[in-house]
Design goal:
- It is built from 8 helices and 11 strands.
- The protein is an alpha+beta fold.
- Strand 3 and strand 4 form a beta hairpin.
- The protein starts with 6 loop residues before the first strand and ends with a helix.
Length: 276
Amino acid sequence: MTIYPELTVTIDNRPVQWEEIKHWKAKRALVVLQLFADYGQKVILKNQTLLQDTFHDLSDDDLIQAAKETKLALGPNKILELLQDEFKKSDEMWHQIIARTPQDAPLKEMHIQLDVKGLTIAKIAQINIQNGFKTGLSNKEIAILEKAYDLHPEHYVFSQKRNIQDVVETFGEYGSPTHFNLMMLDAKEEKFLDKIDPRTKKIIFGKGLLASDQFDIQQYALHQFIPTKDGLHVDLGLFAPAGVPDAAIVGHQRHFAIEFSSLFINILKQMHSQPE
């Protein structure tokens, strides 16, 4: 039985509890730790360096924490430097995907659903989910990175200027980490009007471009927040080129489940800790 009954996640009509999603998160944390170990970097947990032959035996919680601490210790500039070869492989993959996608082919579409009892859009904005991990970064930088790292282990780099997010993550648990820019746009102006639920009160909509050459990878995220009688319903939508392998689409379902479940679990933890 889940310890967070307020949160319901539905993937392909199957309810998935937080405990299963957290295990997915830990498995992706292990991938991150192994990647950095392969590049000769130290794996850090509780300010201690772990031997490579020991971190595979960590608990789910410790794997997730070690991925966060290791990335914070490296810092975004070092991570960008280390992963240059990964970016080249990923850029080539995306160019090949677009090249093999027929020009008029419809986008592949994927959704997952989250329902959170006792939560409103206004309450999300009010809750502070920073954890205060200490590094040499500025307070603003660490606040942004901590939030990104808390949500998913495969968030390697994250920053935002105006409506452009600079992001490194592995798309759909498929291939190498991608360095891309996510342009935050108006879904209605981008001809996604027919995809918007009329009950929606808040929309997050973004379009992906490769950071290296601003190549349009024709990937869109459309997330809709819909108030309900007892809380909030969230529809997480992904639209991707027809040439994207189905395995990557399924993988990004898990990515969204990890990312947004982690967000709402952090919020629920704070709500539970507050006096009635």
